[in-house]
Amino acid sequence: MPKISEHLALLILAFHLPFVCIAEQSSTQQPNQKTVTLSSGEWPPYTSIDIKGEGVFTQVAVKSFEIMGYSVKIKYYPWKRSYFLAANGQLDGSLAWAPTPERKKDFLFSDPVIFATKVFFHLKSFKFNWSTLEDIKYLRTIATKQYTYGEDFDQAAKEELINVIYSNSDEQKLNMLLAGRADLIPLEKLVGIYLLKYKIGEPKAARVTFHQKPLQNTPICVVISKKIDPQRARVLLHNFNSGLAKLRANGSYDKIMRDL
């Protein structure tokens, strides 16, 4: 093999070096395909940065991805910003959302992780019973912004067939109920029990009860943004659903839920 002169070798190296650097830089800028970044808001006991395991929903979501070989980053924001960042593709997706026609424009929805049961909370001093939404049309009801309470309730509120005003959080509307500013508040049952025990506390919590009739039973899901690469979105959704099924099959899902 003929020898290459030192001068020629340096010229060849100088010519190729910029392309090597560009290739290496491009490689380092590629996102880690096995890392999933999701947003969430505060919804204890399901999702919260301040409680054990960041909540049972978060634990199930993280473990469903991990069992499929992913690492997961959860970033907490106010709910509106949590939705916005994921919907715009700045994150892979978000926890924990109920499917609605509007949300389906922005996201792919996973198989249900939990089913949330919303009921009407009220003061024990207020004698309350209901069968249809007609029974509450003259009562003062406080719901939470950005939440859905079922198609019938949402539509009745939109058409002002029932008397609904909105708060910024579930805890805020519980305090409004205790202050006498509402007759009813629709609230996920376990969330309400958690807030009364850990946020409101006694003796105020003892003044509140709830009606057993469900207002809504709704699936709560992990969502994947439609603004990220479509193939990545489909793969993430498929793998999450597969991981969730494995957690249910091996007993891990039930173990997490027993700790609720």
UniProtKB/TrEMBL annotation:
It holds the Pfam family SBP_bac_3. Keywords: Signal. Residues 1-23 form the signal peptide. Residues 40-258 form the Solute-binding protein family 3/N-terminal domain. It comes from the Bacteria. The keyword GTP-binding does not apply. PANTHER family: ABC TRANSPORTER SUBSTRATE-BINDING PROTEIN (PTHR35936:SF25), MEMBRANE-BOUND LYTIC MUREIN TRANSGLYCOSYLASE F (PTHR35936). Belongs to the bacterial solute-binding protein 3 family. This is Transporter substrate-binding domain-containing protein.
